[in-house]
Amino acid sequence: MTDKNNHILVNVETTYLDHESDPAKARYLFAYTITITNEGDTPARLLSRYWKITGGDGHEQEVEGDGVVGQHPYLAPTETFTYTSAAMLDTPVGMMQGHYNMMDDNGSRFAVDIPAFTLAAPQKLH
Q1: How is the beta sheet containing 80-89 ordered, strand by strand?
Q2: 28-85, pLDDT tens digit by residue?
Q3: Are 115 and 1 in contact (CB under 8 A)?
Q4: Which DSSP string corresponds to 36-99?
Q5: Domains in the chain, start-ordered, CATH in brackets?
Q6: Which stretches make up the ApaG domain (predicted)?
Q7: Which H/E stretch holds residue 113?
Q8: Nearest to 120 by CA among 103, 95, 100
């Protein structure tokens, strides 16, 4: 999944963590790796994040926080920042969407949308 806002490109890849999940206890753990690329002409810093995580049962949780993985990446033009984090669901399928709040070197603040992406455990054949 890729999206471009304010010349900031966001790419998301997801992985189901089978060895850390426990379906018998409704625990499904997913890793997501995000690559953020500044394709604009002005450097920008990521200030905070907002996520809406929706389980397959429609249950929603919202997560807001400072930076990502304890950092506030500063992206000069053409630079990228990649990080991996995780989300726990109580259903085998869900989705995430959100945005990053950023500020460019001119002091302008802007949001970078992160379009919805699916978290899905592989179906096991019996």
Answers
A1: 2-5, 8-16, 28-38, 80-89
A2: 999 999 999 999 999 999 999 999 999 999 999 999 999 999 999 999 999 999 999 9
A3: yes
A4: EEE-SSS-EEEEEEEEEEEETTS-EEEEEEESBTTB--EE-TT-EEEEEEEEEESSSEEEEEEE
A5: 2-120 (2.60.40.1470)
A6: 2-126
A7: strand 109-120
A8: 95
Distance CA 84, CA 32 (A): 6
- Name 124's bridge partners: none
pTM: 0.90
Q: 24: part of which helix (H) or strand (E)?
A: none
Joined tokens for residue 28: 């499904």
In the block, which residue shows the tokens 């070197």?
105
Angle, alpha carbons 20-80-106 (nearest 5°): 125
How far is the C-alpha of 53 from the C-alpha of 58, rounded, in Å?
9
A 10 A CB-CB count for 8 gives 22
